[in-house]
Amino acid sequence: MTFWKPLRTFYIRTTNLTHGFQENRTALDSFYKLWAPLYDLSVSLDSGYKRNLSRMVKRVVQASDCVLDVGCGTGLATLAAAKNAKEVVALDPSQAMLDKLAKKIGREKLRNVEVRNGFFPEGLEKGKTYDSVITSFMLAHLMLRPSRRRRKLGQTYWIRVLAI
Ligand SMILES: C[S@@+](CC[C@H](N)C(=O)[O-])C[C@H]1O[C@@H](n2cnc3c(N)ncnc32)[C@H](O)[C@@H]1O
After folding, report:
1. Most buried residue, 4, 65, 75, 96, by CB count within 10 Å?
2. Looking at ligand 1, which residue's alpha carbon is closest to its atom 12?
3. What is the CA radius of gyration of the chain?
4. Domains in the chain and their CATH numbers?
5. Ligand 1 — pocket residues by CB below 6 A?
6. CB of 74 closer than 8 Å to CB of 104
7. For the purposes of burial, counting CB atoms within 10 Å of the CB of 136, is it exposed (0-12), middle (13-18) or buried (19 or more)?
8. Mapping DSSP to helix (H, G, I), strand (E, B) and coil, where does residue 131 land?
9. What is the distance between the alpha carbons of residues 137 and 93, in angstroms, rounded to a whole number?
10. How far is 33 from 25, CA to CA, in rounded Å?
11. Which ligand 1 atom is at minimum distance from the Cα of 11?
């Protein structure tokens, strides 16, 4: 426990540094292009992360749900949701992270995941609704502009929210 806490704090601080990248999309893309090859390895150092994420996703998601995973990255939460839900839409603006997710979807032969490249909420299909929305380790990206983003997050996209 004493080891994981500083590691999680480090991850969150690193992500916090990328607040400004919401304005500079090339910088965000470059940051995750560099991190993507090592992303799953770095997260696996914290063995509790994936385990607890799967546990929480299972608690929120129901078998008949259409689930939205905002900032899905390499899909740690997406895959957990896909195994428990009817359909999952995985949204992320980093193609490098999405490429990792696409490989996993292929390996696991999942047919119920739609991968979308885009920012929240502009990257979503207009008019589509979701039964549950999950997001993990992504909200830190939005914290510099709370007033604008909070208004957006407060709209009706969010039905059941799991944020860690
Ligand atoms: C630290 S990663 C977390 C990935 C994954 N959710 C996980 O738990 O491993 C944060 C992800 O959020 C994405 N992201 C950043 N800003 C975003 C935005 N405005 N809308 C959607 N995704 C965003 C990044 O591209 C990145 O893949």
Report:
1. 75
2. 71
3. 15
4. 4-163 (3.40.50.150)
5. 15, 22, 32, 43, 70-73, 76-77, 91-94, 97, 119-120, 136-138, 141
6. yes
7. buried
8. coil
9. 15
10. 12
11. 1
Query: What does the pLDDT profile of the chain (164 residues) look like in tens digits?
Result: 556 677 777 777 777 677 667 777 888 899 999 999 999 998 888 878 888 899 999 999 999 999 999 999 999 999 999 999 999 999 999 999 999 999 999 999 999 999 999 999 999 999 999 999 999 988 877 764 444 444 444 443 333 444 44
Question: 115-121: long-range contacts (C-beta < 8 A, 24 or more apart)?
Answer: 115/72, 115/90, 116/89, 116/90, 116/91, 116/92, 117/92, 117/93, 118/91, 118/92, 118/93, 119/22, 119/25, 119/93, 120/70, 120/71, 120/91, 120/152, 121/152, 121/155, 121/157
